[in-house]
Design a protein that fits this description.
This protein is of the alpha+beta class and 332 residues long. The chain contains eight helices and 16 strands.
Length: 332
């Protein structure tokens, strides 16, 4: 509701939209500068992932609140933080120069996060074929959730090299370093322009719907295609690419979760666990996610999501939704 302040009428919705737009544009420009300066990939810098490797086989990374965040961090932000933390811990125990794609990733959420979230990751198993790691996600109030993942070791193509990620060598918090100058619009490459435009458009959608900014980057359209079935369609931009140029893992988990959610009443259910199996790299720009409600009871609902690109299967997700934590305690 608009309020009066100093004789002027203040509309909180308009104010949030304006602040979100300004913050999103600022962070998009800085994410471009960070990607140019230290490598990694755009969305990780947009989300503000910072930290490094305290000791071999571990990683401690944090993520900043998203632009305009009013609730917990988005599924995309938390899944990306977990994926990067797990991979960083494993890379710290392997020889440099190897690809280490994620083959499966499980994210379990205990409650919505608040403010900054930290992922503490450690290696569980390592062999010539890859490795497995787990991590704890926590905010100032305690544990938010857990994640685990399996990664496959692959050599890079002959004649090419793979630089270390900024989190392997340590990415300090922004206040502890001199920020690189954000490039002006005329200095952006076409891919960088697409990243910034995707962020601006996502901010506009998030401001209009109060949805999580990170998940709005998917620009997802969903529709029910039958009893207990829905179809989500997303057009992805370079803003969601990893450093190999394919769609980054956190975006794929967020796509699966957002495509499944319309099959359940949002006030009664929230995502508790998602396991995503990466069948092949997501190289296309148009993705589809077909969700099916497998079982719904009083305290748990299980869904599956088949993710495809250009007619080819690229991933399979199994999700479990549960009542919000407060509701679960009341019914216990």
């Amino acid at each position: 509701m608009p309020t009066a302040e100093g004789g002027a009428i203040i509309d909180p919705v308009s104010t949030r939209r304006r602040d979100l737009d300004v913050d999103a544009q600022r962070r998009a420009g800085q994410a471009v500068a960070d990607t140019r300066a230290v490598g990694g990939f755009f969305y990780a810098h947009l989300a503000g992932i910072r930290g490094g490797v305290p000791e071999a086989g571990t990683a401690s990374l944090t993520i900043a609140p998203e632009p305009g965040q009013v609730g917990g961090s988005s599924t995309m932000a938390l899944a990306t933080l977990a994926d990067v933390a797990l991979g960083t811990a494993l890379r710290s125990r392997r020889s440099p120069g190897q690809l280490l794609p994620t083959t499966d990733l499980t994210l379990t959420l205990m409650r919505p996060s608040s403010g900054q979230v930290t992922a503490l990751a450690r290696v569980l198993h390592l062999d010539a074929g890859g490795g497995t790691a787990s991590c704890e996600l926590a905010d100032d109030a305690g544990v938010v959730g857990y994640a685990s993942g399996t990664f496959a070791a692959q050599p890079v193509r002959p004649g090419s090299s793979l630089p270390v990620t900024p989190w392997e060598v340590g990415m300090p918090a922004r206040q502890d370093r001199d920020p690189d100058r954000a490039p002006q619009p005329g200095e952006l490459t076409p891919a960088e322009q697409a990243c910034v435009q995707a962020v601006v458009s996502a901010a506009l959608r998030a401001g209009a719907t109060a949805a999580a900014f990170g998940d709005e980057l998917l620009d997802l359209m969903t529709s029910q295609i039958g009893q207990g079935r829905s179809l989500g369609s997303a057009h992805v931009t370079p803003a969601l690419a990893n450093r190999s140029g394919t769609v980054q893992g956190g975006a794929l988990l967020a796509l699966a979760a957002a495509s499944a959610a319309p099959l359940l009443p949002s006030a009664r259910w929230e995502l508790r666990t998602i396991t995503y199996a990466f069948l092949r790299p997501a190289t296309g720009t148009d993705l589809e996610a077909a969700a099916t409600l497998r079982r719904q009871g009083r305290t748990s609902a299980v869904l599956s999501v088949d993710v495809s690109s250009q007619g080819a299967d690229i991933g399979l997700a199994i999700l479990r939704f549960a009542p919000p934590v407060a509701a679960s305690r009341a019914s216990a």
